[in-house]
Amino acid sequence: MAAPTQKLDLAGLHLAGGEGRRVALELQVEPLSLGSERYSAQPANVPVTLDVSRLLGGGYSLRLRFSAALAGPCMRCLKGAAPMVDVDAREVDRPGEGEELDSPYVHDESLDLAAWAHDAFALEAPVKVLCRPDCAGLCPTCAADLNEVGADHRHERAPDARWAKLRELRLK
Predict the structure, then answer these.
(1) Closest CA to 10 of 114, 120, 116, 108
(2) Burial letters for 88-123: b for 16+ Cβ neighbours within 10 Å, e otherwise?
């Protein structure tokens, strides 16, 4: 098995203006930190498809596609979660044509594939990482898993401390 690709030499593809190429690669997506928790892409070496097109006036049009699971703790019940994340990202690098056409991932015809994949993966990640869409989470009083104990799990409310003096009052 080949080592995962981190950078790609675009000049090494020897593309003429208007020409394109599809490249199948493997890369390691760096872990994400979401809500002080660490989430990683699974599998460790993610197969990716990269479409590279050389623009007629110079520069490149790029498209990156891959799917990976976002593995880490569920944000509600803390059990393992691994929702699938589908990435379909596009970049254009046309040096000298303005800031919006200057890709932050291309420097001197070298594509920083690892940084682009990490950022694209983070942008496509769900806002809440859940073990299942209907996860009920943990009981705020006893930390029981509400997915296992059921919807009828309840606790008696403690009396309001502000009314404690009234409970001492004895009426005839």
Answers:
(1) 108
(2) ebebbbbeeeeeeeebebbeeeebbbbebbbbbbbe
For the whole model, what pTM was predicted?
0.81
**What six digits make up the tokens of 108?**
């001197």
Give 30's contacts (C-beta < 8 A, 6+ positions apart): 114, 118
| Dihedral over alpha carbons 92, 93, 95, 98 (to 10 degrees) | 30
Q: What is the pLDDT of residues 14-51, one digit of tens each?
A: 999 889 999 999 999 999 998 889 999 999 899 999 99
CA distance 37 to 18: 44
The DSSP symbol for 170 reads -
**Cα(95)–Cα(106) distance, integer angstroms:** 10
Sign of CA dihedral 92, 96, 98, 99: positive
